[in-house]
Design brief:
Low-confidence stretches: none
Bound molecules: FE2/S2 (inorganic) cluster
Structural class: mainly beta
Number of helices: 0
CATH superfamily: Rieske [2Fe-2S] iron-sulphur domain
Strand order of the largest sheet: 1-10-9-4-3-2
Mean pLDDT: 96
Helix content: under 10%
Distance between the termini: 16 Å
Order of helices and strands: EEEEEEEEEE
Strand content: over 45%
Shape: globular
Oligomer: single chain
Length: about 100
């Protein structure tokens, strides 16, 4: 069973926004879109950039450093130079809290 942990209040993540959180020493970015809530690793798989400082366009997350883009729904690469998908994590809402269960490292 995945272990869910509360990381943020729903009110702290309005639709269209993203925020960085740290869970068990792992940096994550939480994204709230029309399609729902998604959690991914916050560090780009290309080099060391924080994706929370990039742009969120619908379900496309664009890296601020060299412009790689990822699909936040499954972490797959949508545009170069990144080649490795971004790990994604399970998200659920319980009451007013957003909870995340980390995928295996
Ligand atoms: S660090 Fe993200 S595209 Fe290079």
């Amino acid at each position: 069973m995945p272990q869910f942990t509360a990381v943020l209040k729903l009110a702290e993540l309005p639709p269209g926004s993203m925020r960085a959180v740290t869970l068990a020493g792992r940096e994550l970015v939480l994204c709230h879109t029309r399609e729902g809530l998604f959690a991914l690793d916050n560090i780009c798989t290309h080099a060391h950039a924080r994706l929370c400082e990039g742009r969120l366009r619908a379900t496309r997350l664009v890296c601020p450093l060299h412009g790689a883009s990822f699909d936040i729904r499954d972490g797959r690469v949508l545009g170069p130079p990144a080649e490795v998908p971004l790990p994604t994590h399970a998200v659920r809402v319980v009451g007013e809290s957003i909870e995340v269960a980390l995928a295996a490292p």
